[in-house]
């Protein structure tokens, strides 16, 4: 979903929450949860948008109505090659979608 589509769905009240997924390599992916499932933020060419930080996500979301936003960190052990999957849930912390300094 593009940023314009995200904004339209948010205005219509069709987005339940946003998850900022922290991924290996130091980048983040924004995932929207809707009644139809999950959708990741993409650019106009259909490529998944890689964000640099929580502040970068806040900047990108500045025109989008405020929604519940969670920072999600998966276990590093789940990403290790050859390790058995663990049943632990990822760390999910609610954060403000707006910068603290206004």
Protein architecture, described:
The mean pLDDT is 87. The longest helix has 10 residues, at 3-12. The two termini are 27 Å apart. This protein has one domain (3-95). Strand 2 and strand 3 (37-40) form a beta hairpin. Helix content is 17%, strand content 30%. The protein has helices at residues 3-12, 54-60, and strands spanning 15-23, 27-34, 37-40, 69-73, 91-95. It contains 2 helices and 5 strands, in the order αβββαββ. The protein is globular, with a radius of gyration of 14 Å. The protein is α+β, with helices and mostly antiparallel strands and 102 residues long. 13% of the residues are buried. The protein has a 5-stranded mixed β-sheet. It comes from Pseudomonas kuykendallii. This is Cation transporter. InterPro entries: DUF6482.
How are the secondary structure elements laid out?
Layout: H1 3-12, E1 15-23, E2 27-34, E3 37-40, H2 54-60, E4 69-73, E5 91-95
Parallel strand pairs: 1-4
Antiparallel strand pairs: 1-2, 2-3, 4-5
Please tally the helical runs, counting DSSP H or I stretches of 4 or more residues. 2
The helicity comes to: 10-25%
Indicate the low-confidence ranges by residue numbers. none
What is the N-to-C succession of helices and strands? HEEEHEE
Q: Based on helices, strands and strand pairing, what is the structural class? A: alpha+beta
Radius of gyration: 14 Å
Mean model confidence by pLDDT: 87
Backbone shape: globular
Distance between the termini: 27 Å
Major sheet description: 5 strands, mixed
How would you write the strand order of the largest sheet?
A: 3-2-1-4-5
Q: What fraction strand?
A: 25-35%
Please tell me the total number of domains: 1
Strand count: 5
